[in-house]
Amino acid sequence: MKLPKMYKCLLATALLGSFTAYPELSHAASSEKEIINDQEANFKGLLGYYFNDKELKETALISNSESGDLFADNDQIDDMLPDELKQFQSAMWRGFIKVEKSGEYTFSTSDNDHTMLWIDDHQVIDHSSATQKIELEKGKLYKIKITYQPESSSANEFGLQLNWITPQGREEIIPEGNLLLPDIKNQPENESSRKKRSISDSDDGVEDSDGDGIPDSLEIEGYTLDVKNKKLILMPWIEKVHGKKRTKSGAPLTKYTSSPMKWSTASDPYSDFAKVSGMIDKKVKVKHPLIAAYPNLQVHMDKFIISKNRNETLENGGNTSSSISGSTSTSNTHSTEASVGAEVHASLFNFGGSVSTNFSDSNSQTATIDRSSSESLGRNWSKSLGLNAGEAAYFNANIRYVNNGTAPIYEAAPTTSLVLGKNDTIATIKAKENHLANVVLPDRFYPDKDQAAISLQTKDDFGSSPITINKDQLNILEQTRQMRLETDQVSGYVGVIDPKTKLIVVDKDKQWSHIIPQIEETTARLILKTPDNSELERRVAAVDPDDYTEQTKPDVTLGEALQLAFGFEDKQGKLSYNNTSIDDFRLVFDEETAENIEKQLEDMETKNIYNVQLHARMNILISPKKDESGVHEGLSSWEIDGEDNYYKYDVLQTGWQTINGKKYYFNENGTLVPNKVIEDGTYQINTALKNTSLVDWNRSDNNITVWETNDGSNQKWKLKYDDSQQAYVIRSVENNDKIMAWNAYQNSTNVFATAFEGKPEHFWIPELLGNDFYILKNKKDPTKVLDVDGSGTSNGSNIQVLDYKGTDNQKWKLEQVEAN
């Protein structure tokens, strides 16, 4: 009977449940591979191909055999193959063999007359009962290949029994532990396998152009995985069978497709076969052949110390008379760099798609000095240090590495630049011996958060070239409270598994800095900003219309990519993420991606952005819509000198603008007005301690206290912004001659009502904390904020200024009201 095409290429791969990948082996111990840590693995058995024809062409099944018992039991594959494919007529096994004792071995099978067997390049059985002896050495791996072509097939089982006679004269079936799975494609070369033509080069009968262990037809038409009798099963996708099937956890089976011409479709260091079967480092987070596994190492700064005295930068303490220090928080720079500079033409599609003219490809982080830390430092840092023009202070950054990628990186050594403003680089440092990380796992920090950070204070291992910062740079840092950490490049290695020791080892032939550029060139980059404000980055294998090999990859639409990369679900034709509709997200593209998508949409009869095809080098940000006013918003060109501008639909905006939930004011020239965060008007000022208690002017003694609301004019205040002071005057509605001020006299902290004289202590700077609450900083010393003494809520509780602590007695809600 002539079988349908799909059955001719039918494949089911049975593997043990906890396989991991083979490294590029050397029979002798290699100094280029360093043991890192244990990983549970099982490498027993040869990989057997069973065919429906005698010429070893029509592959029906692939299965592993742990010992010399090479029979395929039809009971184990009863519901995996149609009956017509269970009639095997030939077979081939390949892998590695090792011995426990050196000496001369003789091999035989249960049917030598129909068998050929090679050990490395030595044929020891050739369709004859006569066999050749071969010398094998303990501690080495030898390639083994067997072909079997009997005269007739069996209905119940098919295969061979593989035996040996040991140097001690014992004849037995080769036991478990002596046979190992092959290393797919990357076969080892060593002193026992260096002939020009080896058995690995001979025709296996399987059309596998890329050598990844999966036949070409299967990679094109689709395959899936299941578990049967504790074994991992890889088989062709048959819709009527697998479309209804569920795993033990209740999840549907996954249909995989991959490139028949690429060993790794996503260009990462793991073959398609290894990823889907689990034959890789178990710390790799992604196992789909279309999702790239790679580390994304970034550098975060926890704290900095600056001092004129170099010894004091070595300390991890607080401020001294000649040093300053502050804690920082680090965020992804590209979140703001991917802000919108232009809008995709609305006439083309209405999908909330926007274009960024500066979508960042850089691995850049922004360290921001925490508010409480910044305010505790006081004003004029260079003066505090006694730093004069032309002098330099010493800089110590306390840093950690974080891996936001999907694969571990071993012996990680980032090169980091510390940058102020736009491009003022303080120092560029490549991690030396004392800054190397043995391993940084995905979603993990090095050192861990519960350990002390790394001290980065010199440009070399010997301490002869300290990191310094001059007076101008210090002033910039004081003004902006920000420093950019650019991870220019990262050195580090791939972890692979040694089948002899079952340990993760560092493979010095697989350097991530060589691999990641190939991944970036052949994938589309997707960044998901989730509703809880976390960020995920994935790279999806995508076709390249200008590269013939890359065109052999499966076509993937944007909608399919969102499901593969982030777990979006298709609910009745509408995508959603954790029950949040795709309609509640916006899409931001770089300019080239936008042009590509526009062209695809023009050619579509039914225009749907989620049906456009991903292409290599696309950049797409998927971000929640905050509100309608913020959908197309973002600040561009943040400058340290205050010349900040904001564009919407390519138009320079002026006046009040709401951006990412906060209000900003831009003057008639489109320049951001510093500290102007609330409109001039009449307000009641409520304490966060009790929503019915307000800031109250006691007319009898001019003291300012909290008091239960009574709608009195002495509880209402006019806020007016003063451009010259970049701060607000808070004036009593009841008496226009009285303003709220800090009584900064003889170390007093009291707040009172007094006549306006234009003193710094007569001005206030509101700063939004979130949830509509503000702190009110005093202009004279912004480290001092409006504070309810002792967190009192009873009528008459005194109001003062105190150092910022972040407690509720320092938080205020400004509610606009009508003046009496």
From TrEMBL:
Keywords (A to Z) from UniProt: Repeat, Signal
Gene3D superfamilies (alphabetical): 2.80.10.50, 3.10.20.110, Cholin Binding (2.10.270.10), Protective antigen, heptamerisation domain (2.60.120.240), Toxin - Anthrax Protective Antigen,domain 1 (3.90.182.10)
Signal peptide: 1-23
SUPFAM superfamilies hit by this protein: Anthrax protective antigen, Ricin B-like lectins
Cell wall-binding repeat locations: 653-672
Composition bias, Low complexity: 316-336
PROSITE patterns recorded: CW, PA14, RICIN_B_LECTIN
Top-level taxon of the source organism: Bacteria
Domain PA14 as annotated: residue spans: 41-178
Gene Ontology CC annotation, any one: extracellular region
One Pfam match: Binary_toxB
Positions of region (Disordered): 178-217, 315-339, 360-380
GO BP terms: protein homooligomerization
The protein's name in its UniProt record: Protective antigen domain protein PA1
Native source species: Brevibacillus laterosporus
